[in-house]
Amino acid sequence: MTWMIYGANGYTGRLVADLAVQRGEQPVLAGRGAESVARLATARGLEHRIFDLADPAAVDTGLDGIDLVVHCAGPFSATSRPMVDGCLRNGAHYLDITGEVDVFESIFARDEQARGAGVVLLPGVGFDVVPTDCLAAAVAAELPTATRLDLAFQAGGGISGGTLKSALEGAALGGRVRVDGQLRDVPMAWRRREVPFPSGPRKVASLPWGDVATAYRSTGIGTITTFARLPGVDLGGPAARLGRLALRAPGAQALGKAAIGRFVRGPGEGKRSASWVEVYAEATDPDGTTVSAALIGPDTYDFTADSVLRSVAAVRAERPEPGAHTPSTAFGADFVRRMHGVRVIEPARVSG
């Protein structure tokens, strides 16, 4: 299988490329930055291609002979559709590392088209959303009567420019939850609760996370809220609300993204190696019975590079049915257990 990393010159794309080489893979590196992509590929002895997603003919040329694309060039709200279009036209499987709710929804809406093309569409094969999706599927399987699902995470470490650009877009929109099967716009930090993470209980606040799209598809549970612990950040406070209003002003997004592109480089290897992530999932049924599970894993970027490579290998070896998938619908709830450095705390039941 010939596969490609598009956006290989970005922070996460570079991590994926380096890990691929370490594991004996030879992906084609691609992007629109001719000089940076060529330099990256030459140093690693890999083929490279240059094309802009805004040009469908160039996309078709760039995808010639490619069986699978790992799309790492965000923000995915702008880049996912042209790449998905190209993959469907050219019969290439599509994987990405998005965490954006609307991107997931738009890709899931193309399930029938993907089936007809014989293509797997698998967004979210990084930290967004492999661990949360797999834990959601695990607790749902233990409690088939569940009608509510809470998912939460806390993480150490820094953040890359691409992640910040996506977060900038999301911050202007406010919160998103799923209620009785429907996506709903809500204020940021609409709900707050305490979560028993493996390291101890922590207070968390709701924020928009891709699982309000993916976990619904994976589990069928109709009411889903996603939470995070962000030390020192009050997502629902006056300063945060004013910031979101400012981000809606004309030109604010463009200015913010330009500043991020210039000044943000992402965490180095030392900082990543000292970082970690914890994820918690809790399903509840109408009688008040709950099933919860948790996991501890490495830094989110190192997790992402590992899970991307394992997703590529799984598509190659396990050949999931064509169509639009989440990680757990493609490979099962235990897929997260394959990741390096991940420890899963088994599901626990508390009767209502």
UniProtKB/TrEMBL annotation:
Gene3D superfamilies: NAD(P)-binding Rossmann-like Domain (3.40.50.720). InterPro entries: NAD(P)-bd_dom_sf (IPR036291), Sacchrp_dh_NADP-bd (IPR005097). Pfam families: Sacchrp_dh_NADP. SUPFAM superfamilies: NAD(P)-binding Rossmann-fold domains. Residues 4-121 form the Saccharopine dehydrogenase NADP binding domain. PANTHER family: SACCHAROPINE DEHYDROGENASE. This is Saccharopine dehydrogenase NADP-binding domain-containing protein. It comes from Saccharopolyspora montiporae.
